[in-house]
Amino acid sequence: KQNKIGMTIDAEEADRQLLQLDIFTRVFSDPSLQGWDGLGVVVQSYFKMAPAVIDYLADLATTVGRRIPLRLVKGAYWDAEIKHAQVEGFAGYPVFTRKANTDISYTACAIKLLHARKAFYPQFATHNAQTIATILELAGDRLDYEFQRLHGMGEDLYSAVRTAGLHDACRVYAPVGSHEDLLPYLVRRLLENGANTSFVNRVVDDKLPPEEVVEDPIAKVMAYEPFANPLIRLPAAIYASSRKNSQGINLASELDRAALAEKINTAAARGWRAQPLLGQLAGKSVKVTDADSKWQSVSNPAAHQIKVAEVRTASSAEIAHALKVASESTVAWQWVAVEERARCLEKAADLLEQKLPEFMALCALEAGKTVHDSISEIREAVDFCRYYAVQARGLLSEPTILPGPTGESNQISLHGRGIFVCISPWNFPLAIFIGQVAAALVTGNTVLAKPAEQTPVIAYRMVELMHEAGIPREVLQLLPGDGATVGSQLTADPRVTGVCFTGSTETARLIARNLLDRDAPLATLIAETGGQNVMLVDSSALAEQVVQDVIASAFMSAGQRCSALRVLYLQEEVANRIIHMLKGAMAEIELADPAMLTTDIGPVIDQDALQILQAHSRKMETEGKFIARVELPESLEGGTFFAPVAYEISGIDVLEREVFGPVLHIVRYRAKDIDKVIDAVNNTGYGLTLGIHSRIDRSVEYISKRIRVGNCYVNRSMIGAVVGVQPFGGEGLSGTGPKAGGPNYLNRFVTERVISIDTTASGGNASLLSQGN
């Protein structure tokens, strides 16, 4: 204001539009800015909300009594907004799905601006002749507006405007900064203006007639049926006819957020109880003695003094009963058509979406999950049900006919193995729990589900929904308890034909030994275990993106993901800069009650986990170099909170085992030593996830081919695998495979049976005789 320099605030993400307006309103309304009309804002016409934003800003300008310089653009990140809405499972798109619709929106917004010039100083950023002509026509004789163009672009166009004697006030803007800072911006501009639909691209094509280059967008849109682009499916339909995408919640919408909060609070106020859910034998249920009826409290990791629910663990008699029920129900369940089993999963998915607020409350109170993590977990559970339903139909509906000599019929079919024990972890108490259970059920197995000790209520409510969806109680039974008692009794029983487990490598070994010690047929073991997950960053990587992905991969979910980043390798030329930026980013992390929307990171699961992390941190204080730690508020003393922390170490060999929590270890490396780095990572024996940040294709290809991991992520975070899109699972010490949420997962839950019939033994092959000479 003092120097009479105009400042315009840009707005790029739809998710932040309302937040930006709130902040702009507060700043613009500040009394100290009276007399200065230099504070402006950008509106992007490809947002469907753009006309409403202009109406809001017009009211603001009128109320405050100052003019707003408003820069109108068409929008820069259209594809990113489309992808974001699809990934988040929104009901629709915040942007128009045809370019011509955006052009019309630009005109509609321009009309609003030009009709309210007491409130606005209009600034039209465009390189499109049709748009310029439209503005000139709409503006009339008043000249209190301007055009804007990028330096080096549109010079000939605006020269033609000037030559024609038309209003040509045009502000030229240019990005300022170092080459490494500007490169992503310039690449984006090249992609935009090089697109086939871009005027800048089309105007230099001599084969196109002028009438087509500057065609009327209204006439173009009126010729469309429907107005929306049918080739860009709504987020719910991105998987076409195979399955519905899971529904998300647009937390950027104040209305959606308020409605959701009310439902969550209502659900959180109720009391929960969890106990074994058993089937019956000949109309009789197992008797529970007084000794078995001891109820234990389930506490909130964010405030352990708060009791969330009560749980009763399964007794030895109940486990024996459940095994007998499962054994006697296996054949009948296998005879149920796969179509009916698949429909039960889809019904369960629908019920879970309806119960989203209740399960969000449970995820926060029982598992310490943040709002965003809770939504993601529920959506993943829904996706597992729908995806495995689709996969099962294709895999088990009909036998596969095999080629062979004439006079024979050969076919192979798939069938459930028998009884599957599903042992799930606390870090994904809903998604992994139901992923295991759904896969086993839909392939024709009866299931005995043992959830993690820390999160039995989430599992209990999900099993209730599965029963409501049509899964018989005899087919799916819940047995809460610890691994040493419930888990051991289940895996030692000779009637169990398979175990699906997610957890530590050490526990997986114990289960494998338990299965081998039985005098029974060899059982299937599907295990997803830990990982010493690494991200490799070379000097070509975009530092801002690296830091964003490191924060998400290492610290979100309190680092309690099996895919989480544990060791960050930085090429020495860029290490100092990225570490400096990482410190700044860590200072902005909000560690607080996970039920609050503003919280980035919640607590670790329990006191045992906290003590392990604290012990490792003390060790790193002497063996590593401290980098940064997130502030731990004193108000969080009642919960098991561990402040995310980063240390620099000499190499991955310093770490004896996986550290399951928000601890990041940083290692510097020289470019010429990349092979030594790859060998060091491979030599850990783990092989779960790897991140690569590089803008050199040959480097990405070289590293990804040499590294032995189940999931490799390039120039993105290492967490948040999507069912059916990024099948997830490791190799080596990180699991047996196959990948959960992938096309090969259900194969491990089935057994193959082949039937061969000699048709010549019953009169010969008539079809052979009927063929021509």
What count of helical segments does DSSP give?
A: 25
On the 0 to 100 scale, the average pLDDT is 93
C-alpha Rg (nearest Å): 31 Å
> What composes the largest sheet?
7 strands, mixed
Q: Identify low-pLDDT runs.
A: none
Sum up the overall morphology in one term.
globular
Derived structural class: alpha/beta
Strand content: 15-25%
Q: What is the count of β-strands?
A: 24
List the strand order in the largest sheet. Answer: 19-20-21-18-17-22-23
Task: Tell me the span between the first and last alpha carbons.
Answer: 95 Å
Oligomer: single chain
The percent of residues in helical segments reads 40-55%
Protein model, in words:
- This protein is of the alpha/beta class and 773 residues long.
- The protein has 25 helices and 24 strands.
- The strands form five sheets. A seven-stranded mixed sheet has the order 19-20-21-18-17-22-23, sandwiched between helices.
- Strand 12 (419-423), helix 16 and strand 13 (446-450) form a beta-alpha-beta unit.
- Helix 2 (50-64) runs parallel beside helix 4 and helix 15 runs parallel beside helix 16 (431-442).
- It is globular and about 95 Å long.
- The relative contact order is 0.08.
